[in-house]
């Protein structure tokens, strides 16, 4: 069963997300109360504790609350675990501005990828992906990650596919490696799986019927040739879900995956290729910068 939600924790998270994105104007107690739908008395005790910890700061004149100085230290500590992310941030902003797509950064684990940063565009498509959202590397998902994850991980992923599609995916992965980016398209089974996942998460339910439906949709998606295409016809139009490219560490492991999520409007194959090449050029530059930074650090 999924973990039970914690409304108190969710309120604190929502408050910090809002303060981080509201441009520095801060919030009064009354505004916090309205935003979180919590009585002002409850807000006072929560805000007092956050002030004590230094996570919030109160303007004595305007009586507004702002992000506090203690978060700077926490941010430095967190940034130390994601050196590639620190380098990638400006490139993500530039990519989003140049392409009109959302730019999402993922860290990569053994069996899942996790959203660690994103730059939103008013032109991009798809649903917002909160920081911390995880995506499993379970076929057919994860193909654009295992393309650069090393031979063993790639072969394990391919082995989980049905025999009749395994070589097609192997060829598509090789093509993605050669061009430096992978393309995922919007297909009906994928959209239905996303909707089903939202239903399961929101209702916090599991059932045999839902599991059977998810498996049926997964099987249908695996056998769709356009789900993870080996190539694109420049004169055709495509509904693109995402375009992915890796930032590689000095040892050639994946430091980050950068993903562009473009407009939901159909794109020509030529336009998809252009966007993919822009992304791949940026990730190659970030990989080189990460390698240079690694060489410049003193040996332990």
From TrEMBL:
Protein source organism: Mycolicibacterium rhodesiae
One Pfam family this sequence matches: HTH_IclR
Domain HTH iclR-type: 6-69
IclR-ED domain location: 70-292
Name of the protein in its database record: Transcriptional regulator
Any one GO molecular function term: DNA-binding transcription factor activity
Superkingdom, natural source: Bacteria
GO terms under biological process: negative regulation of DNA-templated transcription
Annotated InterPro entries: GAF-like_dom_sf (IPR029016), HTH_MetabolicPath_Reg (IPR050707), Tscrpt_reg_IclR_C (IPR014757), Tscrpt_reg_IclR_N (IPR005471), WH-like_DNA-bd_sf (IPR036388), WH_DNA-bd_sf (IPR036390)
The keyword DNA-binding is annotated on this UniProt entry: yes
Transcription in keyword set: yes
Entry keywords, A to Z: DNA-binding, Transcription, Transcription regulation
């Amino acid at each position: 069963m999924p973990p039970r939600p914690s409304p108190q924790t969710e309120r604190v998270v929502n408050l910090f997300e809002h303060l981080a994105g509201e441009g520095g104007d801060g919030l009064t107690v009354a505004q916090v109360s309205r935003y979180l739908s919590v009585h002002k008395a409850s807000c006072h005790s929560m805000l007092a504790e956050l002030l004590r910890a230094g996570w919030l700061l109160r303007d004595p004149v305007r009586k507004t609350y702002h992000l506090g100085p203690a978060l700077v230290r926490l941010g430095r500590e967190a940034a130390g675990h994601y050196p590639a992310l620190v380098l990638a941030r400006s490139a993500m902003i530039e990519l989003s501005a140049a392409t009109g797509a959302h730019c999402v950064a993922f860290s990569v684990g053994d069996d899942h990828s996790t959203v660690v940063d994103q730059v939103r565009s008013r032109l991009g498509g798809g649903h917002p992906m909160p920081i911390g959202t995880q995506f499993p590397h379970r076929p057919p998902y994860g193909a654009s990650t295992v393309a650069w994850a090393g031979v063993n991980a790639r072969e394990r992923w391919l082995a989980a596919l049905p025999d009749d599609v395994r070589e097609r995916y192997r060829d598509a992965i090789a093509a993605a490696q050669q061009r430096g980016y992978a393309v995922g398209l919007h297909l009906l089974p994928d959209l239905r799986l996303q909707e089903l996942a939202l239903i399961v998460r929101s209702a916090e339910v599991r059932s045999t019927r839902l599991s059977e439906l998810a498996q049926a949709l997964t099987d249908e998606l695996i056998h769709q040739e356009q789900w993870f295409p080996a190539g694109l016809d420049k004169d055709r139009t495509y509904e693109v879900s995402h375009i992915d490219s890796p930032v590689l560490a000095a040892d050639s492991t994946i430091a980050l995956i950068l993903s562009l999520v473009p407009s939901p409007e159909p794109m020509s194959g030529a336009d998809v290729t252009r966007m993919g090449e822009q992304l791949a050029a940026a990730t190659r530059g970030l990989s080189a910068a990460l390698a240079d930074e690694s060489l410049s650090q003193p040996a332990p």
